[in-house]
Amino acid sequence: QSVLTQPPSVSGAPGQRVTISCTGSRSNIGTGYDVHWYQHLPGTAPKLLIHGNSNRPSGVPDRFSGSKSGTSASLAITGLQAEDEGDYYCQSYDSSLGGLLFGGGTKLTVL
Amino acid sequence: EVHLVESGGGLVQPGGSLRLSCAASGFTFSNNDMHWVRQVTGKGLEWVSAIGVGGATYYSGSVRGRFTISRENAKSSLYLQMNSLRAEDTAVYYCAREYCSGGDCPGWYYMDVWGKGTTVTVSS
Asked: Which residue of B has its CA nearest to A28?
């Protein structure tokens, strides 16, 4: 099935660590296609956070990190800050769809 | 500085048509594959369509046969012609550049530059 599954929401207090999972299948992450992560704040353009599973673009704080194993990937955010509140999406390529696939998105709330 | 600016959104009746444009600046437009991604209010991001540097086009199943993506490299512009619009096409539409740097152009990879979006509302 061509779906990337993310938890609808996660939360944490300032300074804490949270993780967001992204579970795929054999037609996407499981085949070996890379996973990328975006941060989407209300009213703004999505912003690339992690590319190629674990690489941070310049300007992205090292509080953000990514990993991938098997048919899943994870985004970890340490030292939570209020400005981290927003929606986070994983993305990969799906060979069954023949196109890009986004996860359903995870809303991060900083308590 | 690299920029993508979408335009052309608006209110259209079901069954109607709309043409979105995306003006690119700050990079050599002809060197990158380009994408349209949309977000229905309250929902997640959805990939809509892509066009390669050579003009090959790709569509999601939800828009194939109704939408047409095109590009005009001389004008550094990307377009999305949307026909037979439905209420479920109501969304913010984003133009996005796919990563390609020098000889490193993996294809179907990540989008490193996004526009701020243009809103399409399909309603009677």
From this structure: B108
Chain B residues with a Cβ under 8 Å from any Cβ in chain A: 35, 37, 39, 44-47, 50, 58-61, 94, 96, 99, 106, 108-112, 114-117
Residues of B in Cβ contact (< 8 Å) with A40: 39, 45
pLDDT digits (tens, 9 = 90+) for B29-51: 999 999 999 999 889 999 999 99
Q: Per-residue pLDDT tens for B71-103? A: 999 999 999 999 999 999 999 999 999 998 877
> What is the spatial distance between Cα B62 and Cα B48, in angstroms, rounded to a whole number?
8
The pairing of strands B67-72 and B77-82 is antiparallel
- A7 vs B: CB within 8 A: no
CA angle B105, B58, A102 (to 5 degrees): 75
